[in-house]
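ARCHIVE CARD
Drawer: 12
Card no.: 0347
Subject: one protein chain, sequence and derived structure
Cross-reference: see card 0346
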Amino acid sequence: MKLKSNIAVSDSGFLFDPTTGDSYTLNETGKVILEMLKEGKSEKEIISEFTEKYDVDEGTFEQNLYDFLRMLSHYNLTEI
């Protein structure tokens, strides 16, 4: 999954969609995931890096990641 190229993300976690004018606030985890997506990392790479770096169960993180990605898709913030 890839974030649309026109989506702006600030260092503080503010996400802005200039097409709709909508804005969103991300938590630290969301910011890191979006940065990884912008770097072109796959879902498997994101899961691997998170479970290595943080004390989180792989199954739990995987489910939360896919929920987050579905939310991004729902708000039309991603490209197919």
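Annotation on reverse: The longest strand covers residues 14-17. The mean pLDDT is 92.
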